[in-house]
Each structure stands twice: as C-alpha cells, then as structure tokens.
Amino acid sequence: MKILGISFGTKNGTNDSLCMEALMGAKEKGGDVEFIQMSTLNIRHCTGCCACAKTLLSGKGNMCTIKDDDFEWLLDKMLDADGIIISDPIFEEGASGLFHTITDRFGPRTDRGNNVIGTKIAQETGGKIPDPRLLKDKVISYIGVGGSDWGTRVQCEHAMHALTPMWKVIDNAWFPWAKSVLMEDDKLAEVHQIGCNLAEAAKDVEKAEYKGEEGACPHCHNRLFYLEPGSTKAICGLCGIVGEITVEDGKTKFSFPEEQLEHAHDTMSGKFIHGKDIQRNEGAFAEIRKTDEFKTRKKKYTDFITPTTVR
Fold this sequence. Notes:
By secondary structure, the protein is α/β, with parallel strands linked by helices. The protein has a domain at 2-213: 3-Layer(aba) Sandwich (Rossmann fold). It has 9 helices and 9 strands. A 5-stranded parallel beta sheet has the order 2-1-3-4-5, with helices on both faces. Strand 7 (233-236) and strand 8 form a beta hairpin. The radius of gyration is 21 Å and the shape is globular. It starts with a strand and ends in a 7-residue tail after the last helix. 39% of the residues are buried.
C-alpha cells in the first residue's frame, strides 16, 4: 500500500512537517510512505491549448504539449500511489498558486469521464488507449495551512483537484493561525489521524468514506455556493448541483431535486454529459476555424497589436 505525501510549502517549513506527521500516521497503519517537496520541482503553467482533451476524445491517447518540466514525473508518482496526502499553504484565502497550477495541469487530461470516453473510442478505432491508472480509484486527503484565519476558499479549491479524476476525499482540513502549530499537540494529533484515516481507507477504497467535518452541501461537503441574487437559488461551488438555500429552525439548509445528481460534476453521469459537450463544441469550433469568415475576423486582432516581450 503506497501512500504519497506532497508538500507545497517552503522547504523544511510547517507544511513539510505536517505532511510528515500525517505520513507517520499512515506508516503506523501499514503504509509504505514517500514524500515529495514541491518547491524542488519545475512545474510549468497549463497553456489552455486543449490538446489533451482533443486527443483523448478522438481516440489518440492522452497528450500534453508541455514536455520540458517535471509534471510527468509527478503525475506518475501520484498515479502509482494508493493514497495521497497533500499539505498546502493558504494563499489569499485559498490554495497556493502552485497547487492551482497542478490542478490546471490535471484538467481534462485526467478527467475520469474523458478517459472512459477516450478509452472506448480508442478501442473501437484501434487508437491509443490512455493510461489505465487514470481509471483507478484512489483516496486523497488535504491539509490547508494558514498564517491567519483567512481560508474560506481553501477546502473547496483543494477538493476541486480530486473532482477531476474522481478520487475519494477522506479528510479536507485547514488549520488557521498555524505558525506555531508544531507546539500544539491537539492539532498534531488531528494531522496524525488524517494519515491514519487515509491509510485505512486505502486498504479498501470501495468502502472508503469521508471522515472530515460535515459541509453545507450534503452531496460533496462543500461550503461555498454561487447565490442567485433576489432568490433562494444556489449552485454548489464544487459539485455544481443546483438547488435552494433556505433557513429552517435557525439553520441553513441546501436542498436539491434528486435528478440533479445526474448532472453533478463528480458523478460519472455528470462527467459523461460534460465530456460529450466538450466533444461536440470542440468539433464545431474546429469546423468554424476552417471558414474564411473566422480567419478574417481573427486577422483583425492579430493585425491590431503584437504582444510585448521581455528583451
């Protein structure tokens, strides 16, 4: 049972220590642990070229145009693990920029639905089958580490990373005012338990359950919502379920019709809907780009100004 710990903080900083504390817990439960310090890696930003989605949904495998950084090495490590623990410093109330970059690089390339569709197309056409490890169930836990109590976005942004490959989130914790957390035994015990929980979950992923605090969304445990002004309509910021926010007996409640689960971003049915939408839209755009009218419209902008570059 491989348990991988990844720290997005400064080298030998608090994030490293908390990640290692969780790994100690995982090791106690029988995990074969490994640790990665992200600041030692060279990770480039996603360019948004959509090559990964295009190749996947045309049965040509799983391709990223960025070849000269360490992302492939990192992804291989993550796909090989049975469970992953991520410790991440909170930036501007949310996940760090480096964590966002990793989430972006996961993108449509690691999406479970896209890979199921891409595998089927490749089998039917004799194309290139995507890495089968992308269809493997996995458990993951997140630890957000804050220097203050500004962290209201971090749990949603962390769980967004797991949503793409449909990995099961076991714990999704954040610790405010955590500069001196290594001196707080109760907090260290919580982090240690996160590691224990993950290793136990990795032993039987099918029966693994969320162990963190209950969220406002009864489906994904998210607490952030997009609210429709002047109404009770709300959209879960993580799973995308559309429902209503009401107050009953002094308590906030988010409710939604059962059929919304078919459209949720973290269900296979929802992913298939999204994947087919992407396939249809990419195909339509590919045809539009061939037309003289599109080329003329595009030329207006490319002729207008050129980007300023570093000299």
